[in-house]
From TrEMBL, chains A, B:
Catalytic residues identified in the record: T185
GO biological process, one term: L-arginine biosynthetic process
SUBUNIT field: Heterotetramer of two alpha and two beta chains.
Protein name: Glutamate N-acetyltransferase
Alphabetic keyword roster: Acyltransferase, Amino-acid biosynthesis, Arginine biosynthesis, Autocatalytic cleavage, Cytoplasm, Transferase
Natural source organism: Methanimicrococcus blatticola
GO molecular function, one term: L-glutamate N-acetyltransferase activity
Binding locations of substrate: T148, K174, T185, E272, N402, T407
Site feature location: Cleavage: G184, T185
Length: 407, 407
């Protein structure tokens, strides 16, 4: 059984956190000793902190003592100097914590192509370190410190009750624009007090990220800085010993996916300028890739996103987006339904328009006025594969925020 | 030598046109007897008129007598009834022109998933047919009749002077939203008075479309109705006899590409809500596909598009878009420059930021205030491949237009 609990990363035994935010510039530190795994952006332009963290985890046997993350400057496309700065961040807190810098994860988010203000960061380290704590409030400060255009801090934690004992998984994340993660979100730091080997952590994390962070789209831009780190403190005493489909591994995977999915939805809902969350499930696909392609194309489509912003019952755009997604299907077999979670309206059934009268379109309009819109499409191929993607509407405020970001 | 001339499609001998626009609903007819070729949307959801036109050209030996195009309703996702309506459009003008309906091209643009008002169209056919003419004014009426959210009618024509004699190529197009053609634009009708076999026409059209219409992005949505038809009336007496690299075929290809490129740029510039045209050239790629992927990713990126709208000198987003495009390159080798056609500013040279001081960013801001912004990136791979893509900025008006389209 899985149950939501409070406290974010600090809900997990062995984790301390804190953060500070001064204007555009924020800094969070999370300490937690344990086996660890990471997934990172697939952008060819990789930010310096991503390079440093990846190398650390690849060469240190999969272990972290702490994570340091700054907001306001991405330290991306900054060349040798950027690498020096990212290493300096690691070294600076490693010294103060009395650990080797190779056990530090470094993350950055903000403007690309600007030199990091390393002195500012060192100053903020001195403010944050003495305040590290295992409290809900400390978690909140860390969440806020990594926000950029985010309006809402993002954290989630669960407790899993299993026959082997209880364990917890908690995480925080930030992300609002430049969001179509290709294997991480902007930044997410996740912790568990289960005891898990780093190879098992890596496998579980990859699988969970695939179904959660990789299924959200705000604007289709994949960041240079995406990173998701998972650390297991082992403090609960529950040991996940095997990859194989033991029920305990499944319970761990399930708890991890639950946390990542909630964080992913929070990111999509807080997409830059967004007023609504879109959840799109595509079923009846031949392959999972087809289901993923169609569901993501729908939540990525600027035309679908603007229609949802304006409560415009222009559902043809949803069908068109599936059509160009690359997914294999026959238009004469598809089924489309939209709902607000309570009321639903059938728009297409087995390729035939259900009803396009004013009453149907009015009902659709009222459904589209909800805060969360559910789109359900069945491709009707005879295949059984399914996927769910999350996105948000495209609004005046998205344009406003991004037409004037650096200045 | 190629020279711009007036008159759009009516600049070509053997072509008559006219159109009518009443509120949202418009109808254009173009008559021209000759060998013909078409390219169509690759969207899995294919509109009825695309199906009918494609079948006509595939079974009639590649020949057209006339094209009929309506705006206001896409006749897409309309099932058997939609096919009946598209065929009725063809039959209705075929009867009046005294030709076989299989020699008619049918095209539609507008809302998806709504039944065509075939009676309205028949009424408009009666208005348009008696007014068909070979004049510039008649061409203008046809251009206007196919517009939907377009603000500007789009036509272009050239005369090519060759040793074998002079010939002309003229075309019209419409398109403003749902624009990332995957082999056509929304709608484009192109004519030449050269005499060309339909297989040669098809080959020339495919090649030209690849470098022009397929290189524009307004919002990344590929329409269900994209279609580009090319008809050769042969009236100039200039005969293009071969595919091979004869200089005459090259001159024809060149004239055709010139017309299509101008139409493509007009579509990008008139993108929904757009205030600026973006031309992005990516050079130094290993493969042409890499150059295409990178240049299109840059003009497609909502973050690049909003930054250009707001004159925000946030050039890191351009580098990031190339990074996630799938193109192969090393970030330490790239070069980036932006210009307004007169003044230019170097931002990155061989992977190093040229200068990021206030003077550079201010110069970049003033360049970004121009009506056409040129982005030049060299991937520095040692490869020689290059590609140019066109797009537009993303503005409040794009959101406004699309949040309230059907209502």
């Amino acid at each position: 059984m899985i149950q939501e609990i409070k406290g974010g990363v600090c809900a997990v035994d062995g984790v301390k956190a804190f953060g500070v935010k001064e204007g555009k510039y924020g800094l969070a530190i999370i300490t937690a000793k344990g086996n660890a795994a990471g997934v990172y952006t697939k952008n060819k332009v990789v930010a310096a902190p991503v390079i440093v963290t990846k190398e650390n985890l690849e060469t240190n046997g999969g272990f972290l003592e702490a994570v340091i993350a700054n907001s306001g400057n991405a330290n991306a496309f900054t060349g040798e100097e950027g690498l020096k700065d990212a290493n300096a961040m690691a070294k600076s807190i490693a010294e103060k914590l009395g650990v080797d810098p190779k056990y530090i994860g470094v993350a950055s988010t903000g403007v690309i192509g600007r030199k990091l203000h390393i002195d500012k960061i060192k100053e903020q380290i001195c403010t944050v370190l003495p305040n590290l704590a295992a409290t809900e409030k400390a978690n909140d400060e860390a969440m806020k410190a990594i926000m950029t255009t985010d309006l809402v801090p993002k954290g989630f934690a669960v407790e899993a009750q299993t026959s082997a004992g209880n364990f917890r998984v908690g995480g925080i994340a930030k992300g609002s624009g430049m969001i179509e993660p290709n294997m991480g979100t902007m930044l997410s730091f996740v912790y568990t007090d289960a005891e898990v080997r780093s190879d098992i952590l890596h496998s579980a994390l990859k699988e969970a990220v695939q179904k959660t962070f990789n299924m959200i789209v705000v604007d289709g831009d994949t960041s240079t800085n995406d990173m998701c780190l998972l650390t297991a403190t082992g403090k609960s005493g529950v040991v996940i010993q095997s990859f194989e489909n033991t029920s305990l591994y499944e319970e761990f995977q399930n708890a991890l996916e639950t946390v990542l999915k909630e964080l992913a939805k929070k990111i999509a809902k807080d997409g830059e300028g967004a007023t609504k969350l879109i959840e799109c499930t595509v079923a009846g696909a031949y392959t999972e890739d087809d289901a993923i392609a169609a569901s993501k194309a729908i939540v990525r489509s600027p035309l679908v996103k603007t229609a949802i912003f304006g409560n415009d019952p222009n559902w043809g755009r949803i069908v068109a987006a599936a059509g160009y997604s690359g997914a294999d299907f026959d238009q004469s077999k598809i089924t489309l339904e939209m709902s607000d979670g309570c009321n639903s309206v059938s728009l297409v059934s087995n390729g035939k328009i259900t009803k396009n009268d004013d009453a149907t379109l009015d009902k659709l309009k009222s459904i589209m006025a909800a805060e969360t819109i559910f789109i359900k499409m069945d491709l009707g191929t005879g295949g059984k594969e399914t996927a769910t993607a999350w996105g948000c509407d495209l609004t005046y405020d998205y344009v406003k925020i991004n037409a004037d970001y650096t200045t």
